[in-house]
Amino acid sequence: MSLSRKRPVESLSQDSSITSAEGASLSRTQVAEMKNPDANMTAKKKSTPRIKRGGDFKDLVIQSTIFADKSLFIKDIIEDSDTALLLAMPRRWGKTVNLDMLRRFLEIPVDDKGERIDQSITDNHKLFAGGRVDGGIRGNIMLSPLKISNANLFGETNALIVQGTYPVIYVDFKNCKLGCFDTVREEVKRVLNSCFKQHRYLEKVTSLMRKRKKR
């Protein structure tokens, strides 16, 4: 009786396919996985799309590796003739992130003291018009213009002309889910106080000052 000894897997790495000790056919890729399983897992992680969640439009655009441009939602909202709009989609359907996108498009940019700043240098403007922004640990990221940057409102005005030109009152109570009534009340106060501070520049608007004096 004669016994044959199969060659080890390593000596056959140049073949198009090889045979394992158990007799199963293996491809080059499978051999590489057997040699370095950690590297294979790393490659799979790198190829997995990442979508940043949490309701912040800026984080979604900058921190995600895949992004669906739905910025024409802004055009639909502005051109809608209704006095009020109720968005009642189910949970996780993008209500918060769409409203945050609308806020970032319309609101007047301010600094930490509530004073107006040049909107053309802000991240809010670059999110829609395109430009280089700070991506944190990802470094500087070059963003492409979104669809809304080429859209005309009511068929006449380019949408970017009105970007960053409106006072927007945006109140978010999602973090006010606390243990007792007093704690919730203090958190609501903090949210409203922050909203007022963001619009301090309105105190210097002449027309508003005149109306206040008349009252």
What does this molecule look like?
It is built from eight helices and six strands. The chain has 215 residues and is mainly alpha-helical. The protein folds into three domains: 39 residues, no CATH class; 119 residues, no CATH class; 45 residues, no CATH class. The protein has a two-stranded antiparallel sheet with strand order 1-2. It has a two-stranded antiparallel ribbon with strand order 3-4. A hairpin with a 5-residue loop joins strand 3 and strand 4. It starts with 16 loop residues before the first strand and ends with a helix. The N terminus is likely disordered.
Provide a short characterization of the protein structure.
The chain has helices at about 30-35, 35-45, 55-65, 70-80, 95-105, 125-130, 180-200, 205-215, and strands at about 15-20, 25, 130-135, 140-145, 150-155, 155-160.
- The unreliable regions are 1-26
Oligomer: single chain
* Helicity range: 25-40%
Mean pLDDT: 79
Gyration radius, rounded: 28 Å
Strand order of the largest sheet: 1-2
Q: What's the domain count?
A: 3
Note the beta-strand portion: 5-15%
Q: How would a textbook summarize the main sheet?
A: 2 strands, antiparallel
Helices and strands, in order, run as EEHHHHHHEEEEHH
Number of helices: 8
The first-to-last residue Cα distance is: 112 Å
